[in-house]
From TrEMBL:
The keyword ATP-binding does not apply. The keyword Oxidoreductase does not apply. This is Flagellin modification protein/polysaccharide biosynthesis protein. GO terms for biological process: polysaccharide biosynthetic process. GO terms for molecular function: pyridoxal phosphate binding; transaminase activity. Keywords: Cell projection, Cilium, Flagellum, Pyridoxal phosphate. InterPro entries: DegT/StrS_aminotransferase (IPR000653), PseC (IPR020026), PyrdxlP-dep_Trfase (IPR015424), PyrdxlP-dep_Trfase_major (IPR015421), PyrdxlP-dep_Trfase_small (IPR015422). The modification N6-(pyridoxal phosphate)lysine is found at residue 189. CDD domains: AHBA_syn. The active site is at 189 (proton acceptor). It comes from Colwellia psychrerythraea (strain 34H / ATCC BAA-681). SUPFAM superfamilies: PLP-dependent transferases.
């Protein structure tokens, strides 16, 4: 089976992790700050906080921005559930803004309409909006940022798919148009630390809050303490935090992987450009890219033109899997998940997202993909979609 995504682990990565295992620190040593440095440098942000997952990063980012009971956070339905769950962890409510039918990202016009409607009807305005750079393609951050100023919401960019990408020639994660950006380093993502996440920001107060929250709310910084030190052992818990720390093995793997970031993203862009060409005569829509951005190309999503295909969406998916193509579907609209339906969301609420779900398929795309593998994906797709079965 050719998987839809796969990590690349080199001897250099293995050596980096083994070196840590032989060292004095398995956690809270020098590798985490080194990894954070590599992220800061790559994305041009003032602060980077490494944690054990992007889900944890989303949670502490929401808390740092003051999300709590009585607040509402808005995100897109076409994302991994974690982008929405983080608001619920904080006791806040979640709501969604439907996607743009070309980019599949949160639609900026619909965001504005929803804001106007909320304001006119005295409804709660969002405390935070979480745009997700789906497949690595950046959202229209300048417009979202402008709306944030106008309507008073903060912005967390969910860049789980987007490390190494650029928006208007600047690296995603530099927080020019947001308060915090979060990244994921799960093995299917562009860079991996096995499990892991990072939050970047340029705001020292937010960085300090997230640093406390990732490690129990405990500080050893005398300037934050309420009492005089009792002695060399002394620390204070000044907030209710968690254990969301990244290990030294994970961070060392991350440092080693980050040295290949540009190569990873360049290869993904080459493979994606190949797909654009190879698939152009098939009954499907290839991903449209905006000209002011450079996508990390985490995923390659095709949309089937079902009225030109003999098989159903599900049949195409199953035929591809049967023939060794490890396709997937990113994502089931979050508001249609049973847990979210329990909260009151209903089908029909976010039509573009629901339409997307009826014909989208993610086809294999990963750094080590060979020409033969890519040709096989295209050949199998050609047979299945033309029903030359
Ligand atoms: C993978 C992913 C997450 C969660 O990342 P973890 O590191 O697995 O917690 C959140 N949002 C999006 C869009 C993702 O793709």
């Amino acid at each position: 089976m050719i998987p839809y995504g796969k990590q690349e682990i080199t001897q250099q990565d293995i050596d980096a992790v083994v070196d840590v295992l032989k060292s004095d620190f398995l956690t809270q040593g020098p590798q985490v700050p080194l990894f954070e440095e590599s992220i800061k440098k790559a994305v041009n942000a003032e602060y980077a906080l490494a944690v054990n997952s992007a889900t944890s990063a989303l949670h502490i980012a929401c808390l740092a921005l003051g999300v709590g009971l009585g607040d509402v956070v808005w995100t897109t339905p076409i994302t991994f559930v974690a982008s929405a769950n983080c608001a619920l962890y904080c006791g806040a409510n979640i709501d969604f803004v439907d996607i743009n039918s070309d980019t599949y990202n949160l639609c900026t016009d619909k965001l504005e309409q929803k804001l106007i409607h909320a304001k006119a009807n005295d409804l709660l305005l969002p405390k935070v909006v979480i745009p997700v750079h789906l497949c690595g393609q950046p959202c229209e951050m300048d417009k979202i940022h402008k709306l944030g100023k106008e309507y008073g919401f903060s912005i967390i960019e969910d860049a789980s798919h987007a490390i190494g990408g650029k928006y208007k020639s600047n690296p995603i994660g530099n927080c020019e148009y947001s308060d915090i950006t979060i990244f994921s380093f799960h093995p299917v993502k562009i860079v991996t630390t096995a499990e892991g996440g990072v939050a970047t920001t340029n705001n020292p107060a937010l960085a300090q809050k997230m640093e406390l929250l990732r490690s129990h709310g405990i500080t050893r910084d005398a300037s934050l303490m309420t009492e005089q030190s009792h002695g060399g052992w002394y620390y204070e818990q000044i907030a209710l935090g968690f254990n969301y720390r990244m290990t030294e093995m994970q961070a060392a793997l991350g440092v080693s992987q980050m040295s290949r970031l540009h190569d990873f993203v360049a290869t993904r862009n080459t493979l994606a450009a190949n797909y654009d060409q190879l698939l152009k005569d098939l009954p499907l829509i290839t991903p449209k890219q905006s000209d002011d951005s450079y996508s990390g190309r985490h995923l390659y999503v095709i949309r089937l033109k079902l009225n030109e295909i003999a098989l159903s969406h599900k049949e195409v998916f199953e035929q591809l899997r049967l023939r060794g193509i490890g396709v997937n579907l990113h994502y089931i609209p979050v508001h249609t998940q049973p847990y979210y339906k329990e909260l009151g969301f209903v089908e029909g609420q976010f039509i573009e997202s629901e339409n997307y779900y009826t014909d989208a398929i993610s086809i294999p795309l990963f750094h080590t993909m060979t020409q033969e593998q890519q040709d096989k994906v295209v050949a199998v797709l050609t047979v299945v979609l033309n029903k030359l079965l």
